[in-house]
Amino acid sequence: MDADLHQGQLFLPNEDFTRLPRKAIALWRIELAITAALLTSVIAAMLGVLMPWWLDWDRHLALLAALVPLQASWMWFRLKARWRFTGYRLADDEALVRHGLLERSLETFPYGRVQLVEVSSGFWARRLGLAHVAVSIGVREHAEIGPVSTQEAARLRSELTELTRQKAVEL
Asked: In the chain, what are the helix, strand and coil shares in percent, each to the nearest 5?
């Protein structure tokens, strides 16, 4: 794998990486909305219990409780840009997984080191026909591809398993 691939493709969206399906944006938005609603409720409840109302801190409470939805709404519109820079590529000797918007990362893992390929799908992902493919290459090292369609997840699992068997025999 040449250095240009690792350096240049980390920052620019291009055709060499397979993009996630557009349903991934919907899944991320559902997860973001649920998280924001739960955090707002917890913060409002905690501040309501901890702050005495007789000190006239109700405006501060409302402001603090509103910060989470404001942050979530800002993140809501950034998810499409995040999607543009998220993808994967199965090369000859290794797989590459790229993700991130502001802080981008490129994970590579050689097929010969893969120990486990796992497909999982949460409640909302199943409703959208999506799944995640987790690839473990050690006790603490893993990469996640997804969310992808359930058919693509099954194909990736089969292909990664087969490539792992081939490369393990070569080693």
From this structure: 55, 20, 25
CA pair distance 70, 149, nearest whole angstrom = 31
Tokens matching residue 162:
């087969």
Alpha carbons 95 and 60: distance in angstroms, whole number: 49
3-state secondary structure 116-129: EEEEECCHHHHHCC
**Order of strands across the sheet with 94-99?**
18-19, 87-90, 94-99, 105-110
Report residue 131 CA to chain centroid gap.
11
Give the pTM: 0.76
- 110 Cβ contact list (under 8 Å, min separation 6): 93, 94, 137, 167
Tell me how many degrees the CA angle 62-66-71 measures, rounded to the nearest 5. 160
State pLDDT tens for residues 77-101. 888 888 888 889 988 888 888 887 7
Identify the CA nearest to 146 among candidates 98, 79, 76.
98
**Which of helix, strand or coil describes residue 57?**
coil
Contact partners, residue 154, CB within 8 Å, separation at least 6: 119
